[in-house]
């Protein structure tokens, strides 16, 4: 929808045509179903069958065989499972993908997310960016005293989970900043990002915009009152690996437990 709205070369193309053009560029692509309209989770990994611009045909065939062998399992009772999906689940995914290409549905969702982000910024001056399916909070601005090495986005996420029962996903310097430890034992970043982003994805057609605004207004109110201004504890990631996927199963040490419990209590208050 953003391409269609902002690029005149795509203004007359359907979403289906735009997606086909994007897919045709790559050799492989992935789709997460967490943000879709009918299925509750999972995803797909698709590779080009022939005529790769980068991969050899042998690599393509090997990848295709590997994907098929690890995603199709025999339960031993004559019934096959596709990555644990039932037939109903596959139908849900198919209907969700169709909805994702429905311009009216997609436009309504983008407007909903933009409305919530704009209202939070106007009411509380919350540092937030509205995306197509998610809100992105500048956690490093909300927690200015938390060092980058102590994961502002992940710390804010932990606070929100405990205080508001809202779970986001840190997609900032921990995941994409090239975090590493120098020979002197100091945490450094080879690709430091201008914003330590906490993503709040809005999954499917579950939440109305007024509910989202009400739930996140507690965060905005706490920020406006300076509740986060002097927090400095943060988190220390354990057994960190810079592979772009650490956040899926990450474990952390809570640096200042008393500080954490205090701010959670005050937000709930």
Concise overview:
With 269 residues, this protein is α+β, with helices and mostly antiparallel strands. The protein has helices spanning 2-6, 15-25, 57-71, 87-100, 103-124, 139-142, 152-164, 173-176, 209-224, 257-268; strands spanning 28-32, 43-47, 72-74, 80-82, 128-130, 134-138, 169-170, 179-181, 187-189, 197-201, 235-238, 251-254.
List the helices and strands and how they pair.
Layout lengths: L1 H5 L8 H11 L2 E5 L10 E5 L9 H15 E3 L5 E3 L4 H14 L2 H22 L3 E3 L3 E5 H4 L9 H13 L4 E2 L2 H4 L2 E3 L5 E3 L7 E5 L7 H16 L10 E4 L12 E4 L2 H12 L1
Antiparallel strand pairs: 1-2, 3-4, 5-6, 6-10, 7-10, 8-9, 11-12
Q: Structural class from helices and strands?
A: alpha+beta
Question: How many helices does DSSP assign?
Answer: 10
C-alpha-based Rg, rounded: 21 Å
Main pleated-sheet profile: 4 strands, antiparallel
Tell me, briefly, the overall form: globular
Amino- and carboxy-terminal Cα gap? 40 Å
Strand fraction equals 15-25%
Lateral strand order in the biggest sheet: 5-6-10-7
Instruction: Please give the share of residues in helix.
Output: 40-55%
Low-confidence stretches are none
Number of strands: 12
Arithmetic mean of pLDDT: 86
H/E series: HHEEHEEHHEEHHEHEEEHEEH
């Amino acid at each position: 929808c953003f391409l269609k709205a902002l690029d005149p070369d795509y203004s007359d193309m359907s979403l289906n045509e735009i997606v086909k053009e994007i897919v045709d560029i790559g050799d492989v692509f992935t789709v997460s179903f967490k943000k879709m309209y009918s299925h509750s989770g999972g995803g797909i990994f698709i590779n080009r069958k022939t005529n790769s611009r980068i991969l050899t045909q042998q690599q393509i065939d090997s990848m295709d065989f590997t994907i098929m062998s690890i995603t199709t399992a025999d339960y031993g009772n004559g019934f096959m499972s596709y990555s644990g999906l039932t037939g109903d689940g596959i139908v849900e995914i198919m209907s969700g993908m169709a909805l994702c290409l429905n311009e009216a549905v997609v436009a309504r969702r983008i407007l909903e997310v933009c409305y919530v982000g704009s209202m939070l910024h106007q009411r509380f001056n919350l540092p937030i960016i509205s995306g197509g399916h998610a809100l992105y909070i500048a956690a490093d601005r909300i927690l200015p005293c938390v060092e980058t090495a102590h994961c502002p986005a992940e710390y804010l996420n932990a606070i929100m989970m405990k205080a508001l029962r809202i779970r986001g996903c840190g997609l900032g310097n921990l995941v994409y900043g090239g975090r590493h430890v120098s020979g002197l034992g100091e945490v450094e970043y080879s690709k430091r990002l201008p914003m330590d982003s906490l993503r709040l994805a809005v999954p499917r057609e579950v939440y109305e915009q007024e509910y989202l605004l009400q739930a996140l207004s507690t965060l905005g109110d706490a920020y406006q009152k300076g509740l986060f201004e002097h927090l400095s504890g943060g988190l220390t990631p354990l057994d960190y690996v810079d592979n772009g996927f650490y956040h899926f199963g990450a474990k952390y040490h809570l640096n200042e437990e008393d500080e954490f419990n205090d701010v959670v209590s005050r937000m709930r208050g």
